[in-house]
Design brief:
This protein is an alpha+beta fold. The protein has helices at residues 2-9, 41-57, 98-101, 118-136, 141-167, 189-192, 204-217, 222-231, 236-247, 250-260, 270-273, 276-293, 300-303; strands at residues 14-19, 22-27, 30-36, 63-65, 74-76, 79-85, 177-180, 198-201. It folds into two domains: 2-85, Phosphorylase Kinase, domain 1 (2-Layer Sandwich), CATH 3.30.200.20; 98-303, Aminoglycoside 3'-phosphotransferase, Chain: A, domain 2 (Alpha-Beta Complex).
Length: 306
């Protein structure tokens, strides 16, 4: 692989090592990583443009490096790779508190990679999964049995966000920003600044996904969450969006997808199913915290359990 990388990128590399499906190395005193590109071909040019703009505003973002043929993708052993140059010290775990201080940037050119509003994408996801499971229920009995609870939760989230859009006015802080597909509590700062994870969305996306991940990891601290929400700049519209996104069980649908794509065994879903009641309590606790700062409407079946 060393010779292949040197050939395609005209680099003289050292300290090459392979970890978690990523090749790490140094060249001319700078750190690089070569990783498989896992998004659609249609998004590639848009991602390149987005990372240029994001890097212009914050030089900590990693940069996508073109190969000797001036292409972003390099095919090696029938796999599409992208080379990233690191531009900072990323070897720190991303904390909830960091999301208050790490910069999020408003993007002027918004026609690409926009994932907002969420409701259309959520409805499409649910419709597709319902259709898919009609053909897979015998193969995946655990998913088939649990799916309808999470579809119902997802439909609650859709209604909540739709009502928010109809009832609450957006404010200046509700602009679209550079966000991430899935920000996790186990991420390092390198993951935050990885351009291959970027999308354009409302600022509450990253907060909600981080909080859901914290719950799944069993490492959430309600006092820390309360302190964070007390200091973060959210409008009444943003607080309602945040709770609506917490309602949507993206973690279940992500796990579902990995199972039907044969990446993991079906039994892995039990890590979520065994904590359904705990998650309902978690949502109720987060609701009470948000209610302190903004008069968001309740979800009756959750608040009645408190």
């Amino acid at each position: 692989m060393k010779q292949t990388i040197e050939f395609y990128y005209n680099l003289r590399i050292e300290n090459l090592h392979f970890q978690n499906q990523i090749y790490y190395f140094n060249a001319y005193g700078q750190a690089f990583e070569l990783r498989v590109y896992q998004r659609s071909e249609e998004e590639l040019n848009q991602l390149f443009e987005l990372q240029l703009e994001a890097h212009h505003q914050d030089s900590s973002y990693q940069q996508m490096i073109l190969n000797r043929n001036q292409q972003m993708i390099t095919w090696i052993d029938q796999k599409p790779y992208v080379l990233l140059k690191q531009n900072g010290d990323y070897h720190h775990l991303l904390r909830l508190e960091d999301l208050k201080f790490l910069p999020v940037y408003q993007i002027r050119n918004k026609q690409y990679l926009v994932h907002f509003p969420w409701t259309t994408l959520w409805m499409q996801k649910i419709d597709y999964i319902e259709y898919q499971m009609a053909h897979l229920e015998n193969e995946y009995p655990i998913l088939a049995e649990s799916l309808w609870y999470f579809i119902g939760l997802g439909e609650n989230a859709i209604s909540y966000v739709v009502n928010t859009e109809n009832e609450v006015r957006r404010e200046t802080v509700d602009h679209l920003v550079v966000a991430h597909r899935r920000l996790k509590s186990t991420d390092m700062r390198a993951d935050y600044y990885n351009p291959l994870t970027l999308i354009i969305d409302h600022p509450t996306r990253d907060i909600a996904e981080y909080l859901k991940s914290s719950f799944l990891e069993g490492k959430y601290d309600l006092n820390e969450i309360e302190a964070f929400l007390n200091g973060v700049a959210l409008s009444p519209y943003g607080y309602r969006l945040l709770f609506g996104r917490l309602l949507f069980p993206s973690f279940y649908f992500d796990c579902y997808q990995r199972i039907v794509e044969k990446e993991i065994k079906e039994e892995k879903i039990y890590t979520i199913l065994n904590r359904i009641l705990e998650y309902e309590v978690f949502l109720g606790e987060i609701y009470q915290i948000i209610k302190t700062y903004s008069d968001i409407p309740p979800v009756d079946w959750i608040t009645k359990k408190m």
